[in-house]
TrEMBL record:
Organism of origin: Cercophora newfieldiana
GO biological process, one term: mitotic sister chromatid cohesion
Comp. bias (Basic and acidic residues): 114-123
Organism superkingdom: Eukaryota
Region (Disordered): 102-123
Record's protein name: Sister chromatid cohesion protein DCC1
GO cellular component annotations of the record: Ctf18 RFC-like complex
Length: 123
């Protein structure tokens, strides 16, 4: 038997959105830059091997996709016009984007992963 009081509960609905979401991990330096009085525009550049994020101060970051085994569920409140108020689960995120600081203009080499380290040496 449930011990939860249904009068104090928040209903959870599944309302998947057609939009694909990616979470971007920002360094404290970038957060500070974007929270400043006059936040600068950041630019994305494509290279044959990676995507690069550039700041006006000359810093460059490679974008790397990371998979996660934990479910990251994005929630939003239901619209006020909805018959029931609560939370909508709009998507589950399985990958995040990591920013890796770059020393120069050239992007860092791509990681080959654990499988390649273990089995791919003889190829």
């Amino acid at each position: 038997m449930s011990t939860q009081d249904p009068t104090n509960s928040v209903p959870l609905f599944h309302s998947p959105a057609d939009t694909g979401y990616k979470l971007l991990e920002l360094s404290p330096e970038l957060v500070e830059l974007l929270d400043s009085e006059s936040p600068p525009a950041l630019t994305l550049h494509s290279t044959p091997t990676a995507a690069i994020l550039k700041t006006p101060t000359g810093k460059t970051y490679s974008l790397r996709q990371k998979n996660t085994s934990n479910a990251l569920i994005l929630l939003q409140t239901t619209p006020e016009s909805a018959p029931n108020t609560g939370l909508d689960a709009i998507t589950t995120v399985h990958e995040t984007i990591e920013l890796v600081p770059e020393a120069g203009e050239a992007p860092a080499p791509r990681a080959k992963g654990k499988w390649h380290e273990k089995f791919g040496r003889g190829r």
